[in-house]
Amino acid sequence: MAGAAVGEVAARVAGGVAGGVAEGVPAVPVEVACGVLTAIAVGSVALLCALMQERSSVLELAEQLRRDLDRYSPGGKLPSSRVLVERFRVSPVTVSRALAQLVAEGLVVTRPGAGAFKARPRAAAEPVGDTSWQEVALSADGALDVVPRTVDASGVTVCLAAPPPGVLEFNGGYLHASLEPERALAAALARAGRRPGAWGRPPLDGLPELREWFAREIGGAVTAAEVLIAGGGQSALATALRALAPPGAPVLVESPTYPGMLAIARAAGLRPVPVPVDPDGVRPDLLADALRATGARVFVCQPLFQNPTGAVLAPDRRAEVLRIARAAGAFVVEDDYVRRLVHADCGPLPRPLAADDPDGVVVHVGSLTKATSPSLRVSALAARGPVLERLRAIQIVDTFFVPRPLQEATLELVGSPAWPRHLRSLSAELKTRRDTMTGALAHHLPELALPHIPSGGYHLWLRLPDGTDDGLLTGAALRAGVAITPGRPYFSAEPPAAHVRLSFAAVAGTGEITEGVRRLRAACDEVLGSGS
Length: 532
Description:
The protein has 17 helices and 15 strands. With 532 residues, the chain is α/β, with parallel strands linked by helices. The strands form four sheets. It has an eight-stranded mixed sheet, with helices on both faces. α9 crosses α13.
């Protein structure tokens, strides 16, 4: 029977004989069906035997050629494929596969159009060097530093590194891929690439249209001339701290605060001094005390949905913080990192501190990364007065400029109808995820205190029972299949209590949030005891 006919009848057999005649499929007589199936079975066995024989021939030929290689010098040419076919009475396919096996083993090299050659011996491994001298070199210059310029990125990498497979990501610092405006970003990048001059050198301060957009977003009397485009919030914060404080100087920070900012300060040789935060933000009385005691000229804060507590600086504290800083001759670095991650039940947002600052006290940092993608590293530095030129100079020396295609794509994104749609969708989803996590925690882990439920951002800050080691709990959680962030790195000095931070934006959805809390319950049972 012809191959096509066999295939047709076999299909009819599968549809008719085995399970009843399907609609539109002619019935096949049983005796015909049996004959066809027998023919197919016989053909399959024959094909299998042929494949096994071919594999055996390849292995035998490869072994023979390995032995023959001893007769060739390194670089010596092997017989052609045609000669090998005739000598060993095998097919060209067998020769090709046998040579490929030897190539994979590093015994033979092939050159298109030239043939196969015996591989030359691999060079001896380079001796392992001795880098121990660097321990002296890296520490000798800092022997006289008031503050050692150590670089500890562990507090940052915990939010950047992907967890092992199967581990739920409660420690992520960015949106899950399902929450990113991926299609809008792709469309914006495609449109940006077609703009005239999109791949040319941008103005050093950033595209004027993008600076104008950020100025409008900040509000108040801030103008485009007072805005610099920077490469992400982390880069902008590093520029600000280098511009405002010399090595060895104190810098006031909220306590607790973002570990990445503490890492920036310490890497610059600055000395972070904590100022406590409560549910209404930084305490102005303690800020004033810290400024008097240290003589610091910089205070770094997150007035909106503070990381990690989620606190919003209370209305009556906003003007007080600026007044205290102005009286002390100090700058306030405002890290407005998460303004676009509001929840659907959030009321009107307060303006950035920079919008209510006519005297140039505030150096504003605003970023789009958290609301879009980790790779859209575009932010704004806004300042008023002589400090702007210092910020500009340091940024140019460090990075020259933000790549123009990225700036053009950002302009396309924020100017498209997809941008407000994305923000509305994200706002609703973040609220749903927050409510799911708080509900699951209340049900499964009531012993973990949640003093504040934020209406923006992507995480919760939980206080652990007294005496709990947050490091031990983090390790137990990872063994249970959920990655969480310990609270210790968020404090610049001794923490008053043990905490953990849980992110609800980096997982796939509410189902993973519920499952992650269940796994965290098992970890708590291991560390705290099941009776807790």
